[in-house]
């Protein structure tokens, strides 16, 4: 397959990221029609199950040519899933970790995703612009990489069985810090002068969700139809996230993740502007 370069580093204060050495990526078949470059097999299979088997982001029918924002793009499984489901979709994606960003680009190229359909930025989203912010990168569990590593300590303490605690310890082994740029989402959305509708805003950023949500101005919030946010109760932010979304005019509900631990529940908070969401019975 021809090589396609999809890196789009904005000519702003984000600048470029200096990548650290990483092992040669490996290809892994995750499903009958999906083989991708991965950083860690367990992590990739987990994310694949969430998106392709549990359908955690199939929250509402979208338009035939949706505009989608992917915050926390990881190796690109959500983007590939949405492009397969909505071939005319335009996706604005963000992945700040250099090693993961490289895998994302490789996977888009592997499936010949047109460069004009996916704008990819090597930065994090947040409530304000920061040239370089320390992010903890977990090479054994890249999807857990976070600006808030202390929550991983809370998770370790909350898990009931020694087995799960050992699993967390293995996943956290080799953790390193990398400085990454942070930008407000509205700064990027301003680059689409004809944009009138944001069909879906997906957020999976490991306890940084509220900061991401606060990085969008009201003029852009008015365009958003659907939001899906993965949030752990350990972060203590779920109520604030739901309140913010309701304040923007959304019907809000939440679904408990199928893999969630009883002592450390994780939810997908779903917000829809079209149609009333059901009242959650979860505490």
UniProtKB/TrEMBL annotation:
Q: Which InterPro entries match?
A: FkbM_mtfrase, SAM-dependent_MTase, SAM-dependent_MTases_sf
Give start and end of each Methyltransferase FkbM domain. 70-250
Family annotation (Gene3D superfamilies):
Vaccinia Virus protein VP39
Which protein, by its recorded name, is this?
Methyltransferase FkbM domain-containing protein
Q: Which organism is it from?
A: Coniochaeta hoffmannii
Which stretches are transmembrane? none
Q: Name one Pfam family in it.
A: Methyltransf_21
């Amino acid at each position: 397959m021809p090589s396609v370069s999809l890196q789009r580093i904005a000519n702003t204060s984000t600048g470029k990221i200096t990548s650290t050495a990483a092992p040669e990526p490996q290809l892994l078949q995750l499903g009958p029609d999906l083989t991708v470059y991965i950083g860690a097999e367990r992590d990739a299979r987990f994310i694949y199950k969430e998106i392709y088997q549990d359908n955690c982001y199939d929250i509402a029918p979208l338009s035939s040519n949706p505009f989608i924002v992917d915050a926390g793009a990881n190796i690109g499984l959500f983007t590939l899933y949405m492009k397969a489901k909505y071939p005319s979709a335009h996706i604005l994606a963000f992945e700040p970790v250099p090693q993961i960003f490289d895998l994302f680009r490789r996977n888009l190229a592997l499936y010949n995703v047109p460069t004009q359909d996916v704008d990819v930025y090597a930065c994090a989203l947040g409530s304000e612009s920061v040239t370089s912010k320390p992010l903890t990168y977990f090479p054994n569990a890249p999807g857990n990489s976070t600006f808030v590593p202390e929550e991983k300590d809370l998770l370790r303490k909350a898990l009931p069985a020694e087995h799960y605690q050992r699993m967390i310890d293995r996943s956290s082994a080799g953790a390193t810090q990398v400085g990454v740029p942070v930008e407000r989402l509205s700064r990027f959305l301003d680059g689409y002068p004809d944009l009138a509708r944001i069909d879906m805003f997906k957020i999976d950023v490991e306890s940084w969700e509220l900061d991401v949500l606060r990085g969008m101005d009201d003029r852009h919030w008015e365009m958003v139809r659907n939001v899906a946010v993965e949030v752990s109760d350990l972060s203590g932010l779920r109520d604030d996230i739901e309140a913010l979304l309701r304040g923007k005019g959304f019907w809000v509900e939440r679904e408990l993740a199928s893999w969630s631990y009883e002592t450390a529940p994780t939810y997908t908070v779903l917000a829809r502007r079209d149609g009333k969401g059901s009242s959650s019975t979860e505490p």
